[in-house]
Structures are given as C-alpha cells and as structure tokens.
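User: Before I run my own analysis I want an independent prediction to cross-check against. Here's the chain; please return only the structure tokens and, at the end, one sentence I can use as a sanity check.
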Amino acid sequence: MFPVIISASTLTLFLSFAIPFDIAKAAAPPSYAIWAADSGIARGQGNGLVNGIPGVSYEHGEFQWALRLLYESTGNKSYFDYIKLGADTILSDDGRTLAAYNVSEYQLDHLRVGPTFLYLYDKTGDEKYKASADVLRAQLDTHPRTVEGQFWHKQRYPNQGWLDGVYMGDVFYAFYTSRFESKNQTAWADVNLQLSLMFNHTIQLPSDANYTGLLYHGYDASFSTVWASPDRGHSPEVWDRAVGWYFMALVDLLEFVPPTQELHKTALKQLHALAPKLIEQADPAWWLVITEPGREGNYYESSGAAMFVYSLLKAVRLGFLDDAGGRIVAAAKAAYEYMLDHWVTDNGDGTMSWQGTVHVGSLDQDGSFQYYISQSVDTDDLKGLAAFVLASIEHEKL
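Assistant: Structure tokens:
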C-alpha cells in the first residue's frame, strides 16, 4: 500500500524543494520565516516520511500548518505543493488508509495531521482528503475518556490528560466541526469540555509551591501514577513546550471558532488568565522547567519560546489580547531577538539550522525536574523549527 520506492515525478517534485536558499540572503535574510521553512524543506523535513518510511507525524502537521500560513502570506505555491506532497505520501489513493496509523492506539498526537487534510480538501476538492479527515474524526467517537469526559492522551496512558493533546486533537476536532458540523452543539460542547477539564485540573494555584499561575504538564484522573498530586492529580512541574502547545491551541481556536460558541468564550477567558502570567516568566526567553527558574541544569528552551512568541503576537494582532501598554509585544519582541541571537545558525550553504529544542517531554516516568533536564537537546528538531516559522510569520507582520 505504501511502497518505499518513489515515482520519478514525485522524486522530481521533492528535489525541486531542495534548491538551497540564496547564499547572498543567508547573512541577513529578508524573512526568517522563509529562510527557516526553505531550510526545513531542503532537508526533506515534514515530507510524510518518518525515518525514511511513510508515517503519520504530529510534527509534520505542525510544520504543514506553518507552511499554509506562509503560502497564504507569500503566494509562493511551492509551499502548498510541499504540504500536498507530505499528505499524499501517507495516504492511500482513496484516503481511507493512513500510513502507520492504528486507531487502536488511540493517540491524540496522530490527529494533528487532520487540519492538513481539511485544508487540502477545501483547496482541491479532492474527496480523498475528506475521507482521511473522516477516518481521524471517527477515532474521537470511541476514544477512551476519564469519568468526567477528558480524552486520554493515549491508550497506554489510562486516565491521563496532557496539555499537548489539546493542540493535537481538539484543534482538529473543532476545525472539523466548524467545517462540516457547524450546528452540532454536542460536538462544540465536547471540545469546550476538553479545555475546561484540562485547565481546571492543571492550573497552578497560589498555594502551590513554585507558583507561576501557568499549567502543569498534565493530570491523572485516577491518581494512580507516581507523579499525580494528591489534590487534583496533576504532574509536579510546568514544562514549557506543553504550555506552548496549549497557548497555540487557544489562539488558533479563537481564530476560527464562532464567537457565539461557549468554546470561544472559554478559550478567550483562559488566554486572558494565562497571558499575563506567561509574560511574568519571560527572562527574556523561558526556562525549560518554568517552575524552576535558574535552578542548576535548567536552561532556556527554543521550541517553547517560539510557540509563546507566535501565540502572543497572533493574539494581539487579532485583538484577543489588549496590549494598550505595549508590554506583550515588547516581551515577545525581546524573546524573538534572543531566539535569533542564540538559536539561529547560518550553515553557510544558504540554509539555517535551529538550535536548542529539547527532544521530548513525557509523563511516562516521574515528571520530575531531573527527568525534563536529562532529555537530549536537538538541532533542527521539527517541533522547534516549525514553531520558529510560526513565530517569524507573526513577528514579520508587526
């Protein structure tokens, strides 16, 4: 169904993206968003292949979302073609089979490619993309939940809700509902429930140690994991990228969810509660473990910072955050300059590399500070590079 051998036409298309960015522009690129996106494409990132084999990847979904915005802002059709190439690589001809997708795993991560399929369906009218979105949407009908109704992050993490899952699964859920079931109030209410439960179970309280007012990485509704707190079952630390996923979910939801929906009101209320707290933690970037600023072994992490810059600037631009005093934009701009100074590397061949992205952050162990800081830090990790493209798009709209 998914041969590793690629057709000559597809290979020609792929190689066309590998043309290096003009070296003359590399020293002072007119657009960091374009430079970063073109560099990722030149390396073959986000093309539907995972370790050389077709497979569903939330990282690809994030990058494709960024390329969509870049295509819309530049009109450069090569970005659209690359999105389509990535989707076609993992889909059967009728769209009903997705490479390396197994519904029984019940991973919210896999749903992140859903917005790509919806976008391609709207742009091309090809029914295979609607069919593939239908396959992912059907997962939510049987996806396991906590007693209160929160989607489990994955089948292998019973009763656990993670911030990451809101970006991976619930943005697609709402996007699909807005496109095909706009009058389905049960669906709208369900997405609203997901945000409400996640926020209420993970928000830091003033009485908590190392209070920041932000969100813990996740919670266990069964209180059975080693890291579950006795009061609400939350994990012990605020991890920057988990909060970054959540912030991006909020602003992206606010952009397309009708203001008349309770979900819009909930997302806006949460954004207003969290944004001031996030600004307080900017130093000028954000610590990997936000609850432990300056602690030995902690460091500024690049993917979370880029996600925050994107979210804050987009929220101000669209009027979801009032920045009359200019504090939000000032903090985002300072963080962006830090990003350019510390994490963007000119490779000398027309491409750039993105530094400082932690490879993974999970709640499959003890969720401790030592766990987070012990994870490897990568160069050109797509989770961070895609977020930098998003942040750069917003920064360049200032």
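Sanity check: The first strand starts at residue 49 and ends at 50.
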